[in-house]
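anyone seen this seq b4? input:
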Amino acid sequence: MVLLPMKFYPPPAPAACLVRERLLRQLTAAADRRVVLLQGLPGSGKSLLLLQWLERQSAPWCWLNLDQQDQDWQRLLASLLVCLEKQLGVSERELKALAERWQQDELQSRPIEARLAPLMRLMDQYTDTRLYWVLDGLERLGEDAARHLVHWLVDQLPPHCHLVLTSRLDVQLKLAHWDIQDQLLVLQAQDLAFTVDEIQELFQQLNKPLLRQEAELIEQQTWGLAAAVRLMAQVGEAPHQALARTSLFLRETLLDELTEYEYRALACLAQLPAVDWPLLHHFLGQQAAAELKANSLLLWQHQGWVLPSDLLPQGYQLHPLLKSLLSTSAAVNLAAHLPWLAEHYPLPMIADLALELDETALLLTLVEQLAQPLLSGLNCAPLLRWRVALSEQALQTQPRLLLVYAWIAALLGQHQRLEAYLALYAEIRADSLPESGALEYQLLQAWWYADAGEVKQAQRDILAVYDQLIHLPLVLQVLVRSLLVRLAQSEGLYKAARAYNRVSWEGVHQQPSSALVQWLSWEQATIEVGKGHLLNAVDLLQQALALTAPPQLATGRCALLLAYVHWLQADLPAGQQQLELGLAIALEQQDPWLVSGELLRSLWSRLEGQQAQAYRILSEAEARMQSWQVPAQVYLPAITALKANLWLDEGKKEQAMTWLGQLSRSGERQGVVSIELIPRQRLWQQVLQARALMSAQQWQDASALLDQLEAELADYPAAMILLFVQKALIRRYQRDQKAAQTLLRQALVLAQPEQCRQPFFSVDATLAELLQELTEQLVEGSALHLFAQQLLKKISQLRDGLPQPDLNLAYEPLSGREKKVLLLMAEGLSNQDIAERLFISIHTVKTHVKAILRKLDVKSRTQAVTRAQSLELL
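predicted toks r here
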């Protein structure tokens, strides 16, 4: 029997070889485990990874490349003997005696485990240290034989011997009892796939640096298959050549072993974006499907050929590299199978299939049926997904569908798209328009006016036809009143906003709809938050989110608003789940309220002292809004205000004041817009304007602005917490300690019932000092005293992560003489030396030093110098 030497050595490493530390760390952590199993497609890097790992180990190892001939037990035993001779140094005499014993008739008729028992005893005799035994290509033994061999080896190998296995297929090993004992490590195809970072690292290693977007594209094309990524790295200037070479490799290693029916099934998968078992049965025909193993899709999934897809129930999508290998004589015609598909699958899924197959006519037919129900459910995502395949000419043939898309553009603040849809609608012949078309057109024009800042015109146009709203579907009645609600909120008219919201609730109670209940709950909660009633808002939002409704636009807005309220209450862990839910839904629905979630992420990053991350989040949000064609006046004010807040933290007063000033003037020119990303957004931006004035020591201007805002909030005192905190800081810097404590006490009184903590987490340490002094004056054990103590504790926990205090806020300007004295203090001169240098009396020097300490709010000469350096006075 001839055994080639290459059978006992791992395959050579390729030229482009990346050391994948994340996987090597997993293997190293599992070095003591009984079994290590790597399962994945050919070319997924199993053998190379094991070789890199074993070369790092100090323990010896044996390598055996299995092939189909090893299904002959005599050849398999001979291979095992050679492994022992090469690695363990077993004498030729002992091996010969063992081989001769295996030739005995009585042993040949016994099970293989009986034949292997002497080999196990020999291994136990010759190995007293850790040994790794690699069986590469386990699937070549056949499923039953491989399973039987592995189970016996795992149970019989000496304790210091570890079994390392690779397989292209899932051979259904039953190793659960070893897994429970933490003696098993399994790396599947998805674990072995190259990540985007690893792709970038490999190309960098070959002096072919990639942008992250390019690496993400390669990862999508290859699903991270190691062989494909390496080929693309080697021929990076012509990626299609690498894909062609990879396809050839996969054809030779995968497709040649398929049965006719398996090939047909994969060919069907290659044409459709997703396939599940009933659909596969339908397109293959019952006879062919009967020949296909029921678990084939699961088997292919373990191999890495297919992955689960969200497009169909229990559906699968094919590896993109395999699509180029498969073809059929005729393409799948969905339209011809529409009756059967409609009976077995929801229409939105069929529309997605039609979109993927470029069956535009079928898609248009389906979208026309689905548009109004989806709008009634406030589910914009599918309609936006399908819109890319529908031309303007196609939409003009369906006026009702065109109006639905116009409503969606209005909902999502897409001003330019709304204008384009209205222009298209105006070109349609009058006899082709739906009965309610003229009314909807007028209302959508009013919405466009509101987005353009022409608020009074929008309000007049809506109120002129307000009595006719009852002729529209309920969802449109609610949306029109929502526009009136938001316009009233933007002007601070919360009573009017609540009245419109109440009318909508009456209609929804008569025609229950979970989507509209969530929408109106979100709308009412924004009113409550604007009035400062946080606990009411929490109750409304929690009840809305508890509804068993499919996630849609209102679900995301409820989640984001609840996360915002939890942020105001300084309870981010409670709001984290809602924030993630809201961001995910808003991203899917292309909802500009996504910005409110990004603002929260940025605000919390700022509070934790992660300024760079806070800036990055805001920049990404701005880029996202631009890609969605949302008008800048919708999102830019909030983003600019937060950036100015970050600049103030860094002491960039002039930059912050310039931008806030431009923002204020821009708002005056454009008027109120129909979208507020957070309740009281304009008020919040004006408070930041006041903070900028404070940073420039313009105390009177800042105080006047806050007084004006306080007058606007006269009807809603609970909303004044942030104002009172800022006014307390102004009084503190003006040395009016009594007034500062009075204002801070008012803020505490308003904040405690609503558990509103966030306004007290100022970056200025002065506020914490003021709060500490006030806490000592409160009645011990009272609700207000406990609340103040909680605030101080939370501030202490956050102090290490807070940005450096904005010291520019906390000093009065120094006189020219005081600056000279300060400069000499920094040189280390004594009072006497300073007096002699400046030709003044020592008494005068002491007077200047006292003034410097007072103005810089420090207690020693050393602190004064340090403070002056931070203020760039030295």
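The mean pLDDT is 81. The CA atoms of residues 699 and 730 lie 7 Å apart. kinda curious what u guys think
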